[in-house]
Amino acid sequence: MSSTISDPASDGVVRAADGTPLKQRLNRALRREKLRSFLLILPLLAFIVLSFIMPIADMLFRSVENQIVEETIPLTVVALKEWDPASGEAPGEEVFAAFHADFVQAFKDKKHTRLGLRLNYDEPGMSGLFRKTGRPSTKMQPPYKEAFIKVDEDWGTVETWAVIKQASPAYTDGYFLNAVDAHRTAKGIEMVPENERIYLFLFGRTMFLSIVITMSCLLLGYPIAFLLASLPLRSSNMLMILVLLPFWTSLLVRTSAWKVLLQQQGVVNDFLVWIGLVNDADRLIMINNQFGTIVAMTHILLPFMILPLFSVMKTISPNYVRAAKSLGANDWTAFWKVYFPQSIPGIGAGAILVFILSIGYYITPELVGGTSGIFISNRIAYHISTSLNWGLAAALGTILLALVMLLFYVYDKIVGIDNVKLG
Amino acid sequence: MKLRLLLLAAASGFTFAAPVQSDELPACDNCASEMTVVSWGGAYQNSQVKAYSDPYAAMTGVKFIYDESSNEAVAKLRAMNEAGNVTWDLVDVEGPDAVRLCDEGLAMEINADEDLAAAPDGTPASKDFGESLISGCFIPQIVFSTTFGYRTDVAAWNGATPTSVCDVFDLEKFPGKRALEKRPKKNIEWALLCDGVSKAELYNVMETDEGIDRALAKLDTIKDDVIWWSAGADTPQLLADGEIVIGSTYNGRLFSVIEEQKQPVAMLWDYQVFDFDGWIIPAGLPEDRLNRVKHFLKFATDTQRLADQAKYISYGPARASSAPLVGKHEELGIDMAPHMPTDPANMGNILVNNIEWWANYADDVDAKFQAWLAK
Question: Complex ipTM, two decimals?
Answer without folding.
Answer: 0.83
